[in-house]
Amino acid sequence: MRGSGIETLLSDFEKPRIIECDCGQKEIDNRKKEQREEAKRRGQEILDDYNTNYKHLHRNDKCTCGSGKKFKQCHLIEFRKYLKI
Question: Which long-range contacts (CB under 8 A, 24 or more apart) does 54-58 make?
Fold first, then answer.
C-alpha cells in the first residue's frame, strides 16, 4: 500500500508547479523586432546612398564627399560595414 492520505497530500504539495508568465517577453520581442526593422531601413539608406553617389568610384579615386581623401580611406570603410563590397 502506498500510504495514508496525508502522505499523498504532502507529496502533491512538494511537486513543482509551473506558473505561466511572460515576464515582459512580449515587450522584449517587440523591441528586438523594432531594432531589426530599423537596421533594415538603415541598411537600405546606405545602399541607396552608395548606388547614387559612390558606385562609379574606384578605390583610389577622390571621394565625392569633398574631403579630398581617397575613396578607400573615406567612405569605403563605412560601406564595407554594411555592404558586401
Answer: 54/79
Q: What is the pLDDT along the chain (85 residues), one digit of tens a residue?
A: 455 555 555 555 666 666 667 677 888 899 999 999 998 888 888 888 888 887 888 878 888 888 888 888 888 877 777 776 5
Determine how many CB atoms are found less than 10 A away from the CB of residue 5: 8
What is the C-alpha separation between 75 and 36, in angstroms, rounded? 24
Under 8 Å CB-to-CB from 29, ≥6 apart: which residues? none
Residues 49 and 58 sit within 8 Å (Cβ to Cβ): no
- SS3 state of residue 54: helix
Phi-psi region of 18 (alpha: psi -120 to 50; beta: other; left: phi over 0): beta
